[in-house]
Amino acid sequence: MTANRRRHPMLTKRRTAAGVSMVGVALLLAAACSGGGTKSTTTGASGPANRAANVNASGSPTKGGTLKLIGNADVDHLDTAAAYYTTTSTLMRSFTRQLFAYPASTNTTTANTPAADVATQVPTKSNGGISSDGKTYTIHIRQGVKWDTSPARQVTASDFVLGFKRLCNPTQNSVGAPGYYEGVIAGMDTYCKGFAKVPATVGAFKSYINGNQISGIQATDASTLKFTLVKPAGDFLNILALTFSSAAPTEYLNYLPDSADFRQHTVSDGPYSIAKYVPNQSYMLDRNPAWSQSADPIRHQYPDHIQVTLGPDENGVQQQIQAGTQDLQWDTTVPTTDVPKLKSTNDARLGIYPNFDTNPFLTFNMQSPNNGGALKKVAVRQAIAYAIDKVALGQIYGGPTLNTPLNQVVPPGNVGYQKYSMYQTPGNRGDAAKCKTMLKDAGYPNGLTLKDVYRTSGKHPAVYQSVQADLAKCGITVKGTPSAASDYYGKYLSDPTAARSGVWDISEPGWVPDWFGNNARAIIEPLFDGRNYGPGSTNWGDYNNAAVNADIDKALAADTPAAAAPYVHSADLQIMKDAAFVPFQTQSTPLFRSTRVHNAIESPFTAAYDITQVWLNPSS
Amino acid sequence: MIEDTPQPPAGTRPADDDLVRATGVVKYFPIRRGIIFKHEIGQVRAVDGVDLTVRRGETLGLVGETGCGKSTLARCLTRLYPLTAGQVVFDGTDISTLNRGQLRPFRRDVQMIFQDPYGSLNPRRRVGSIIGDPFAIHGVADGAERKRKVQELMELVGLNPEHYNRFPADFSGGQRQRIGVARALALRPKLIVCDEPVSALDVSIQAQIINLLESLQDDFGLTYVFIAHDLSVVEHVSDRVGVMYLGRLVELAEVDELYRHPHHPYTVALLSAAGTPDPNKARKRERILLTGDVPSPIDPPSGCRFHPRCPKARDRCSVDDPVLMPGTDRRPGAEPTGDGHVTACHYPVLPGEVLAGRT
Amino acid sequence: MSTTELFESAEVPTIDTSGTLGRSPWQLAWARLRRDRVALVCGAFIVLLGLVAAFAGPLSKLIGWSPTQQDRINGLTPDGLPAPPSVHHLLGTDNLGRDVLVRVIYGTRVSLAVGVAAAVAAVLIGVIVGLIAGYFGPAVDAIVSRLMDVVLSFPFLLFAIALVSVVGPSELVEIGVIAFFSWAAVGRIVRGQTLSIREKEYIEAARSLGASDRRIMFVDVLPNLVAPVLVYTTLLIPVSIVFEATLSYLGVGIIPPTPSWGNMISDAQDVYQQAWWFLLFPGIALIATTLAFNLLGDSVRDALDPRTERLFAK
Amino acid sequence: MVRFLIRRLLTGVLVVWLISVIVFAIFFIAPHNVAQLLLGKFAAQNQQLVQTVTKQLGLDQPIWVQYAHFLNRLFHGDLGYSYYSHEPVTSLIKAALPITASLAIGAAIIWVVAGVLIGVLSATRPRSFTDRLATLFALIGLSFPTFVLGLLLLYFFFYQLHLAGVTFFPGGGYVPLTQNPGQWAQHLILPWITLAVASMAVYVRLTRGQMLEVLGEDYVRTARSKGLRPLRVTYRHGLRAALVPIVTQFGIDVATLLGGAIVTEQVFGLNGLGRMSVQAVTNQDEPVIIAVVLLAAVFVVVANIVVDLLYAVLDPRVRLS
Amino acid sequence: MALLEVRDLTVEFPTTDGLVKAVRGVSFEVDSGETLGIVGESGSGKTVCTLSLIGLAGGGRRGGQALFRGQDLLTMSADELRAVRGAGIAAIFQDPLSSLHPLYRVGWQIVEMIRSHEDVSKAVARKRAIDLLGLVGIPQPARRVDDYPHQFSGGMRQRAMIAMALALNPDLVIADEPTTALDATVQAQVIDLMVRLQKEFHSGLIMITHDLGVVADIADRVLVMYAGKAVETAELDDVFYHPHHPYTKGLLESIPGASGTRGKLRPIPGSPPSLIRLPSGCSFHPRCRYVMDRCLTDEPPLMDVGAAHRSACWLPATLSGLAEGTEAQRMKVAEAARSEDTPVAEGES
């Protein structure tokens, strides 16, 4: 099923880069770039992950033409209050604006650092934007940022307040939003709790929103916003750079959030506006006449139109762009099988960009009663960690060009990353003999029989079969339980009942942190905080270690990423020591563009080209 | 009911000499339409009030054209069809109201021989098993005994008993009809209803089967109801002949009487229409050409059903439905003739009378 | 009447059966089949398939690879692409470095098993239901026919995916799904045949002898259904095999690592441009098998009823 | 005739209703939590939201209540909203149907014309080389899984030809007929062929069989005895009589396709009903699944009625009795 | 020269079970205004030997010569033959229901016939069709011309077939068992009609039938066929009153009523042979009462046994007729011709 060919087949669809302006993080990012083993610098000059290689910035930007994107499936939501997929972010870049945004840059550090967008400047303690206790943020709105209403109207502070208010509307179209804001912004929690009781009608929503305020978000005047936090948050600017944090025009109060009606009436303050949207079929974006370049330091408005066609899978998309009938990928990547040839012919249209995630990995159901509760034993899990052939797994995802074996919890590009390897095997190819010995020592000379629940889509079956083959060499019989992608988490991994009854023993999920950098909140906490275990938990294996929990608390409380890093690393070491999971690899994203596309700059945030930077060859 | 006092050729016969007595037999077939809920939109009046007696040991011929109801009548007599109305008494038992289980003993006594030597034998079964069916169904004989009996039967009807294991396809039309005869004979029935048993056969083969049937009748004292549309065949095999038209019995008589002195205009026309394999007779013969075709049995004509085509029809015929009456004298108080020749006609054809429409 | 080439109805000559006397219709059909070169070739091929399926184990030992064994030395390029045919792997390898030849051999087992089991199950249900509908008169017929209408009105592929996504895939589920959507077609054919057989004089003959309904259904009707049903079965087997392939393509097929031609082809669709062998060989196996069954089905039909042309079952 | 139509419609409604019950049962008996699915990982953080959403969707009600609601909405022409895209299902279908219809009808025309012509050709020369070739062609078409055929067509006719500079065949996508009929056809040629090949095979064999049967009929001999031209005998007398079962099959096949040519749409990235329904199944988007299944069933039922009416047009014996 | 002269016609059909020799060297001729009756049992080749002349016997390998108005039908091109069909030689078939196209109106079918051979307007052709229907005795032809075949009764259908056959005033009409499917009373009507129309149109008529009664009614001359061969041909009366061939004699004696006695019929024993594996010599010998040595080995040709009377039998020419005396003589001849040790041919098994 083509839906499986989405780039990020993981639970988490959205991430933000933790580009806090900190040297430490920048260094980590630099390390990430050398993941392929090739020497590299942040500015990048060569190697597979050379961010600048593919830009095609030669010539001067030209206006005109229609940029054609092609891909598989529609966005999840068109409402900024709910949109969560990276693909959606790609689109939202063109018609929504936030206070801060990631600038397009071939420099990874720059690209991952929030810059002022609608805000006039990045607030710091030194410029007075952030109070000394780190709990108050004062932000000014840029003049000339306008809605494409008729007549065009200046975007105001209260538009942003409305944006935040809409986040916790009690419809299914409000996913994602509250979690990032409730614990951080004062009064958000109360506001959302109150909102939850409001019946789902336009009128009721309108009157609740108009009649209730979030104490921590105030428009002190038309162009000034004041945020009050519950506690200091080093990643608050990253949160404000999420599309959730976009401004919302009052017109949006006339529709239920992200309803079909809403989707036909989006209002734009970006360079483009949605002229025509046919669900599941196509988008046509036109220039937004109310937008002016002078009021937007981030985006451009080169092509006349941006067209999105939905339908084909990644192979179809690749063929079309290669044949020149389409320009850019919408939600797919270059099929990994196509990469070697394109690379060997030095095809200029190919670009390979590193990801900063861990995907997939092996998780253990530590509650499983199967095999006499063998998976509860650290030694058994360690034995399995030795058995895994990470190179073979890498081959499924295109080999060394596209991924690098990973041996710790925190992948490169995230706070607390330090390269080490606790269960190193020769060439990362796995060590069946060692596994066997350890297993025997742990009291299982005749091996084990494990149930592996896997998704039937994409490369998941291959991953499962690879693990199965590795463990077979160690005397462990792996039996597969196929699951539809939609059932995978709800029915198996996130259901404690399933875990306790031993429906599964091992599985190969993935995790993309919602942002990079200071993201203890986005990796360690959701995956390994044992206190969070329960229905829907992402601590799938019910790993619970007091030391790790303590480290998590400390990392979350840390004022700066630099302060958080040691705690995160300490937790990382402990988790690996307990062999709570087995990391496989970090991956890179291969992208493709047509020859007429110029200034194709990849955004690490969306792992796709930024469509507001592209200009088209005028002779095409 | 037929006045049945006359003398049969071989002396007097006792009252229980009637093997079958059918009274007022009616068989309508509903015409149904509809997808879920079928509803009746009409009826085919295949047999519409027939009285008939079959005497023990005789061959009763039934002739008539397509759709006259002769085959339906035969299936009513054997209770393959339930009757719409009327009564059939077989060998003293009223069989018209019996259910399937109660009919089983009766099934042993009455057998049928069918028209189509291809359709009446299951092509996927061996001959031995087909002929052995009556034994199997009635649990009469098993295993080796059944085989022996079947082979005896095969020999009896002129089939090689060694062909026990062959399939119907291995036999010619005539041989197949012999298989059908053997099957009918298996339980030594009292009555065999032959439904056009030779119509599908070539002349030379037809003669073989007729001879076989006749000799079996002599050997086993069988009673036949013999249905055919070929008048010469019926003439050859029958003791008495009934003529049917549109669901009715219109004339019944001893065979020679009927062929020599037909009373009903329809019988006359039918006899005159029959081909004769004799050029001189053919040249001399005068044919009565009836106009039109047999009307639909769904909506039969009023009064005498033959009246629209009858050269002798008068006003009365379209109103009054004639019943079977002996002789040709229709005046009140006329002396009944004693030869059992009955006709359902208001104006029977008198000896020497010339019917209109001759060529 | 369907014979066009030979004779008009009245003139079909009596075929002398002196050379074939006493042979059952099956034996006759067998004799005709043996004279049919296409049938012989197809039959031989299918027998070969059966043997390959039966001896998949020894064969794979002979070749030296197990069907799930991943050759990570010679079987994959560093980039994870399958290896082309070579001395190590006669027909190349698949996306996980497994031997294509061995997997095609093992795939025979699954594809045949699914095809045959699904076809047989569908035919069994179809025959029983069709027989009941056709034999027991208009009231029963109306109800049963409606039931078959319901099944035939389902968008079956969609429903198959939905069903599998709900109950989870397995060989048994797959067989069940295919059978479930195939039986109604068989049922219709059987019903039609039964309706026409019911009107045959030999059925009337059996009734006149006092035979019970059960006896008539099983002794008189059923044997006459064997020929069309047999033919339909041979045509249903390849349909089921292709169906299995399609389900695999849609991600609801046989559970890996068990190989079936369907899931091999489905896996191969991602790399067919780089590894033609991975698509070609299971593809050839699939097409050759369906072709063989189809052609054999035609021949069987001809043999069972030499006067019937090779009609395609509806 | 009117009574007949009404009765057919009633049975049709019955069939569709039965199907709706079955589909409903399957999806609601299966244990899964739609709200949890929709809310993703936030379900864990906010069980209250899960409950709110569950209540909103009416999923906390007993099945029969949900079914009654569903029926009630159905009677008002409302198929509900997609859980997933929040679009009204009717508008999703409205967008997808023209694509599927274009695909199905175009392919149907190709296969019926080609299939019938080849079938006739091979029936008029039974056992000839032409006949065997047609049979073989038909069988290969039948044996070819649609997705393989589609992939290969795309690869050779779109990709390789494009690289060779021939840009006639687009690589997928859909241009509405109303927008540009030429491009509409151009975009659909490969999908049409893909979809047509398998069915064409069926029609070749069906036509051949029917024609062989009909050409053996007495009335065809009569036509020959009248000294008519062979083409007239074959088509005017033969094919005309052979058409009835072909039309039956055709009606049902087209109707079945209208329910979604799943594989072909998948391969060519056409967002028709088939793809929509597959996505709906993946996402467990019940309102969409039920709507598509019901729609597909309605098509089949309607086709059955149309076919019955066509009988009357094609066969005076039916018309006049 | 006769209207149709058939010389030594052979027709063979290759089948999967072997070569079917349906017609083996049959010769006959028909003149204008003359009726030839061809008699034989199922499979005797009577239909094939006539319909194959105009290419209606479904292919098969044909040999010999068939001169129609001096032109050989067997070597004509397809187009020439098509022009002969319908216009020169028309055919009437056994089953009128299946022989008329069920989906077209009766009138349309006649009009099609006319317009495929003559360049006339639809209106004119339709007028002619109505006239023809009236001629064959269809009541209200102007109304019934637009009926479909299923709206006609059996007799009317056959009348419509006759009307169609006569539409182009053909020189020769081949009637293949035209009355077999009809009831006796209707049969009489149709035969009457055919006789009348033949006189009117003065065409040649070949009447194919297994019913000797029909032949007696209509034929001038008779050809008796057995196992693909003509075994006897003669004037009508000679065949019925002075048959020479034992098969002809057997046929006549098999008919109930013909022999005039109410005793046992005298059937021909056995069944017709397979056309794939024919008996050696005279193919009738296994069923022949008078079989002689020679019959087992030598195939008798058609020989003159009287004036315009030919028979394919080794019995002396003088032994014609049905009388008991002739029978006795035949037995004697046969007895004498048999050698002692030759087993009597197998009868019915």
From TrEMBL, chain B:
GO terms for biological process: peptide transport; transmembrane transport. InterPro entries: AAA+_ATPase (IPR003593), ABC_transp_ATP-bind (IPR050319), ABC_transporter-like_ATP-bd (IPR003439), ABC_transporter-like_CS (IPR017871), Oligopep_ABC_C (IPR013563), P-loop_NTPase (IPR027417). Residues 31-271 form the ABC transporter domain. SMART domains: AAA (SM00382). Signal peptide: none annotated. Residues 321-342 are annotated as: Disordered. Keywords: ATP-binding, Nucleotide-binding, Transport. It holds the Pfam family oligo_HPY. SUPFAM superfamilies: P-loop containing nucleoside triphosphate hydrolases. One of its GO terms (molecular function) is ATP binding. Coiled coil: none annotated. It comes from the Bacteria. Belongs to the ABC transporter superfamily. This is ABC transporter ATP-binding protein. The lineage of its organism: Bacteria, Bacillati, Actinomycetota, Actinomycetes, Micromonosporales.
TrEMBL record, chain C:
It is a multi-pass membrane protein. It is found in: Cell membrane. Keywords: Cell membrane, Membrane, Transmembrane, Transmembrane helix, Transport. One of its GO terms (biological process) is transmembrane transport. The chain crosses the membrane at residues 38-57, 110-135, 147-166, 172-190, 225-255, 275-297. One of its GO terms (cellular component) is plasma membrane. Residues 108-297 form the ABC transmembrane type-1 domain. Pfam families: BPD_transp_1, OppC_N. Belongs to the binding-protein-dependent transport system permease family. This is Peptide ABC transporter permease. It comes from Actinocatenispora rupis.
Automatic annotation (TrEMBL), chain D:
It is a multi-pass membrane protein. The chain crosses the membrane at residues 9-30, 95-121, 133-158, 184-204, 242-268, 288-314. The keyword Signal does not apply. GO terms for molecular function: dipeptide transmembrane transporter activity. Residues 97-311 form the ABC transmembrane type-1 domain. Gene3D superfamilies: MetI-like (1.10.3720.10). Belongs to the binding-protein-dependent transport system permease family. This is Peptide ABC transporter permease. It comes from Actinocatenispora rupis.
UniProtKB/TrEMBL annotation, chain E:
Keywords: ATP-binding, Cell membrane, Membrane, Nucleotide-binding, Transport. Residues 4-252 form the ABC transporter domain. GO terms for biological process: peptide transport. It is a peripheral membrane protein. It comes from the Bacteria. InterPro entries: AAA+_ATPase (IPR003593), ABC_Ni/Peptide_Import (IPR050388), ABC_transporter-like_ATP-bd (IPR003439), ABC_transporter-like_CS (IPR017871), Oligopep_ABC_C (IPR013563), P-loop_NTPase (IPR027417). The keyword Oxidoreductase does not apply. GO terms for cellular component: plasma membrane. Gene3D superfamilies: P-loop containing nucleotide triphosphate hydrolases. It is found in: Cell membrane. This is Dipeptide/oligopeptide/nickel ABC transporter ATP-binding protein.
